[in-house]
Amino acid sequence: MLVITRREGEEVVIGDPANPIGIVRVASVKGDRVRLAMDFPREVEVHRREVAEQILAEKPSIVGKIRPANQKS
């Protein structure tokens, strides 16, 4: 895990600096709260940890097995 220090308004570039995957900016700091602004393409999913865990918990489980079409059940 990389830990860095940034001040309000400063940014972190994710990926190749010439063609970054995304940018994270410290939008504001108030007390113990930090607001982050994230700029990523729409196809890149970005979730808070608790939301990501909820998504994983709600994924449907596999009900049956996939067999080749020429096999009979």
Describe the structure.
It is a single chain. This protein is an alpha+beta fold and 73 residues long. The chain has a domain at 11-58. 14% of the residues lie in helices and 27% in strands. It is built from one helix and three strands; from the N terminus they run βββα. The chain has one helix at 49-58; strands spanning 11-14, 22-30, 33-39. It has a three-stranded antiparallel beta sheet, with no helix packed on it. Strand 2 and strand 3 form a beta hairpin. The mean pLDDT is 89.
Defining key terms:
14% helix, three-stranded antiparallel beta sheet, alpha+beta, elongated, 73 residues, single chain, 1 helix
Topology, element by element:
Blueprint (H helix, E strand, L loop, with lengths): L10 E4 L7 E9 L2 E7 L9 H10 L15
Antiparallel strand pairs: 1-2, 2-3
Low-confidence stretches: none
Secondary structure: number of strands:
3
**Largest beta sheet: what is the strand line-up?**
1-2-3
Percent range for β-strand residues:
25-35%
Structural class category: alpha+beta
Shape: elongated
- Structure annotation, total helices: 1
Q: What's the short story on this structure?
A:
The protein has one helix and three strands; from the N terminus they run βββα. By secondary structure, it is α+β, with helices and mostly antiparallel strands.
